[in-house]
Design brief:
It is a single chain. This protein is low in regular secondary structure.
Length: about 325
């Protein structure tokens, strides 16, 4: 026979050929992996077939698929050298900022600089706006903190440190803030509880709502602090200019023509204090007369009339001089 005769074939090949002759057109599976020769790209290796997983970098087409590259570790379709992260199939993709990954495989896209202004996020006041960068010139009125400096107000045209929305004249640095003013009927700098208020550039004109010529306005808000009454800013007597929070002076009140028994709080601390002590009168050991301290015969509250004694009678048995007078207690 010639070189192609059955005699010239090796024993394994001869057996395979005889099997093919015996089976006619029936398919065969030489490696026993469940896939016939016409389906299997390597019917001599049971680890190679159309359902086998591709094992990267082993030099074998394990899955019989030319599109799953042996040098593509994450099987994202990019071969080694084309992929900046061959262990993650989501890379390359859109850049996800601040995750310490080069998601788009573009070194020029800084992971910590979303607005690409050259300033990393920890130094940028707005990493989504390239117009907001430390050192930029502040553009007044554009709604952006261009220089990343809150002290440079975007709405401060005259540079007086007051935002234009609260500036009485934003073209004149000598004109300042719009303020809230509270009606101060007695002109002592404090407003009473529930006082009328208004906003104005400078003190508003006087109103006729108060019965005093001293009527005016104050920027001190009437507030009862949490530890009231010691820190109140509410005027407890907005009809008497000498009565206001923090008043420390004693003064007579006869000018108010207060009726007997009327009491009043002049320092707004929810209490009334007497300036003059209670009268004292007693004899001394030498029996040469009485020792006394002038004052009210009984404790008299601030703003009230009481019996006042300035002398005593007797030598050993001392008593207040019956010639007492009704005096109005001075108040603070």
């Amino acid at each position: 026979m010639g070189s192609g005769s059955l005699v010239d074939m090796g024993r394994p090949s001869l057996i395979a050929a005889l099997l093919l002759l015996a089976c006619g057109d029936h398919p065969v599976d030489f490696d026993g992996d469940g896939y016939f020769s016409h389906q299997d790209c390597n019917d001599k290796d049971p680890n190679v077939n159309v359902m086998a997983p591709e094992i990267p970098f082993d030099g074998i087409d394990n899955d019989c698929n030319g599109w799953t590259f042996d040098d593509d570790g994450d099987q994202d379709g990019l071969r080694q050298g084309e992929d900046c992260n061959d262990a993650d199939a989501s890379i390359p993709g859109p850049e996800v900022y601040y995750n310490d990954e080069d998601d788009d495989c573009d070194p020029s896209t800084d992971d910590d600089d979303q607005d690409a202004d050259g300033v990393p996020v920890d130094q940028d006041c707005d990493d989504t706006d390239p117009n907001a960068v430390p050192g930029n010139t502040e553009i007044v009125g554009d709604g952006i903190d261009n220089d990343c400096d809150p002290s440079t107000l975007d709405g401060d045209l005259d540079g007086d440190g007051i935002d234009g929305s609260m500036d009485c004249d934003d073209t004149d640095p000598t004109v300042g803030l719009v303020e809230v003013w509270f009606l101060d009927c007695d002109g002592d700098g404090f407003a009473g509880e529930g006082a009328q208020s208004t906003t104005s550039c400078g003190e508003p004109p006087p109103l006729v709502d108060c019965p005093f010529d001293e009527a005016g306005w104050t920027t001190v808000e009437p507030v009862d602090a949490p530890n009231w009454p010691t820190n109140t800013t509410t005027d407890c007597g907005d009809f008497e200019p000498r009565a206001f929070p923090g008043q420390t002076d004693f003064f007579p009140v006869q000018s108010l023509a207060l009726p007997p028994g009327l009491r009043f709080d002049y320092d707004c601390n929810a209490d009334t204090e007497a300036e003059t002590p209670v009268f004292q009168c007693q004899g001394n050991s030498a029996a040469t007369g009485c020792v006394f301290l002038a004052g009210f015969v009984t404790t008299t509250q601030c703003g009230a009339f009481g019996e006042y004694a300035d002398d005593c009678i007797g030598t050993i048995q001392c008593d207040p001089d019956p010639a007492t007078s009704q005096v109005l207690q001075a108040c603070r």
